[in-house]
Design brief:
Elements (H helix, E strand, L loop, with lengths): L3 H26 L5 H7 L3 H9 L1 H36 L1 H23 L6 H23 L8 H16 L5 H5 L5 H9 L3 H28 L1 H19 L2 H4 L3 H25 L7
Helix pairs in contact: 1-2, 1-4, 2-7, 3-4, 3-10, 4-5, 4-9, 5-11, 5-13, 6-11, 7-10, 10-11
């Protein structure tokens, strides 16, 4: 008698990759979360970077495998933008706390990935240096933040930051755009498919991928441990900066709501990691 689970395996894998792609697309626009980090956690960062760094050579071999991820990414990216803008404006503190919980829940998986090829003293040094540098930069941006009038040039910059958050795990474009007042108009424009936002943003993203994908891919191939431990430092620093500390002391209700959102985020991320570990990574 034929095992029916064997026939279901390709379907389950497709649905799993579609879900992972949706979460990567979601992570690309959520504050403090990096689409690249999710690629790492889901074990598809290497094939994604191989495709981006050499799209012509790897098109036939990589696109069929990554097609459900690409489709899911588009759904998650565009489908969540309007909803995200609504919740950030209506429930800003609770939304950010949920995002922080997701990041915290992903840290064990990220640390496990960082040590996949061993750890050295240089690994921990890179993590500490990255943490200090990024935290100092973000504090400086917060202290001297100014509101910028969005235009074509600034949306090009938004596209650059967005692409960087995918090809450089741990770099969340929201941490750079929020202090400049560009995050909300950029996400709102994406959600409404505004060509004045989509065109310059897409152009900036494409140019960034063409210019930086090969270099970043080479960096992780030759300095895996140090690069990924630096990612952890970046993620922790960026996460600290988006925590709405003041809202925890606003009232008992706000404190409870924030803690519940944090807990939901942590549990959700841990559950996703456990479910994802049942499936082999892409090579």
């Amino acid at each position: 008698m034929k095992d029916s689970s064997v026939g279901r395996q390709p379907v389950v894998r497709f649905v799993m990759r579609l879900l992972q792609g949706a979460l990567i697309g979601l992570g690309a626009v959520l504050p403090g979360i990096s689409g690249g980090v999710l690629c790492v956690i889901f074990g598809i960062y290497k094939p994604v970077m191989e495709l981006l760094s050499n799209p012509v050579r790897n098109f036939k071999t990589h696109v069929p495998r990554l097609l459900p991820v690409i489709l899911g990414g588009a759904i998650g990216f565009l489908g969540i933008a309007n909803l995200l803008a609504f919740f950030l404006e209506t429930y800003p503190d609770q939304s950010v706390c949920l995002f922080v919980g997701l990041i915290v829940g992903m840290l064990p998986s990220l640390f496990r990935e960082a040590g996949e090829q061993g750890r050295t003293r240089g690994s921990y040094i890179s993590m500490i240096v990255a943490f200090v540098v990024v935290l100092s930069l973000l504090i400086t941006l917060n202290v001297f933040s100014v509101q910028i009038q969005p235009n074509f040039g600034w949306y090009l910059f938004c596209g650059f930051c967005l692409a960087l958050s995918v090809i450089a795990p741990g770099m969340s474009f929201s941490t750079l755009l929020m202090p400049l007042g560009l995050y909300t108009p950029f996400v709102d424009g994406l959600g409404h498919l505004d060509m004045n936002v989509l065109l310059p943003g897409g152009l900036g993203a494409v140019v960034t991928i063409i210019c930086l994908a090969k270099g970043i891919d080479a960096l992780f191939n030759h300095y895996y441990s140090c690069a990924f431990h630096a990612i952890i430092g970046i993620v922790v620093a960026a996460t600290i900066m988006i925590i709405p500390f003041a809202s925890f002391a606003a009232s008992a209700g706000a404190l409870a709501a924030n803690l519940i959102c944090l807990a939901v985020g942590v549990v959700g991320a841990l559950a996703l990691d456990r479910f994802n570990s049942r499936f082999p990574k892409e090579n």
